[in-house]
Design brief:
- The complex is a heterodimer of chains A (114) and B (111).
- Chain A has 114 residues and is mainly β.
- Chain A has no helices and eleven strands.
- With 111 residues, chain B is mainly beta.
- Helix content of chain B is 0%, strand content 54%.
- In chain B, strands 2, 4, 5, 6, 9, 10 and 11 form a seven-stranded mixed beta sheet that branches. Chain B has a four-stranded antiparallel beta sheet with strand order 1-3-8-7, with no helix packed on it.
- In chain B, a hairpin with a 6-residue loop joins β9 and β10.
- In chain B, 38% of the residues are buried.
- The chains are: A mainly beta (114), B mainly beta (111).
- Chains A and B meet through β4, β5, β9 and β10 of A and β4, β5, β9 and β10 of B.
């Protein structure tokens, strides 16, 4: 079965510093990989999506992610953190099972320090 | 276009009661999925409906059920509520394979 693992449940960076959130997927490569962001008391917002068209994917708010098959990784990066980036980030893979089912990682809470 | 809407946003119930949550997908989206989010288990897939048919179901007891109407709106029902059912329930709609748009969720508290 497909699985997604996020390394680090909490990441803390200074404003202006590089943001790196790690995600690894199981070797049974899903059709798509996603990064979502969740702000307190809100639903999930799609940051970016990998669909095999390009290994480097650019998303909203300056985020990007690189698909590396050799490392089974799909890490999320942003060159310069902003206070407004503080949120929880989820990596997901799917769909699977002949439906739209997504499998999510456990999430990484990003704190941005002034 | 209006986003995915979920009602109610907050619910408080007691053990043994039942609850119905509602989700209105983005216009034109025929697939609706439901997820349960808890601090301990994270985001877990409940079920997905497409054109009024359940297409997939997660590993949840039969107390959890759902349905979809001809206008794509969906409801999920939880009967005989348990304390462990306290969670944020998220609905997502999809226009194409692999892209899901999430609603704000319904926060259910079971006392």
């Amino acid at each position: 079965a497909q699985s997604v693992t996020q390394l680090g449940s909490h990441v803390s960076v200074s404003e202006g510093a590089l943001v790196l959130l790690r995600c690894n997927y199981s070797s049974s490569v899903p059709p798509y990989l996603f990064w979502y962001v969740q702000y307190p008391n809100q639903g999930l917002q799609l940051l970016l999506k990998y669909t095999s068209a390009a290994t480097l994917v650019k998303g909203i708010n300056g985020f990007e992610a690189e698909f590396k098959k050799s490392e089974t990784s799909f890490h999320l990066t942003k060159p310069s953190a902003h206070m407004s980036d503080a949120a929880e980030y989820f990596c997901a893979g799917g769909p699977q099972g002949g439906s739209e089912k997504l499998v999510f990682g456990k999430g990484t809470k990003l704190t941005v320090n002034p | 276009k209006a986003g995915v809407t979920q009602t109610p946003r907050y619910l408080i119930k007691t053990r043994g009661q039942q609850v119905t949550l509602s989700c209105s997908p983005i216009s034109g989206h025929r697939s609706v999925s439901w997820y349960q989010q808890t601090p301990g288990q994270g985001l877990q897939f409940l079920f997905e409906y497409f054109s009024e048919t359940q297409r997939n179901k997660g590993n949840f007891p039969g107390r959890f059920s759902g349905r979809q109407f001809s206008n794509s709106r969906s409801e999920m029902n939880v009967s005989t509520l348990e304390l462990g059912d306290s969670a944020l329930y998220l609905c997502a709609s999809s226009p194409t394979p692999g892209e899901q748009f999430f609603g704000p969720g319904t926060r259910l508290t079971v006392l």
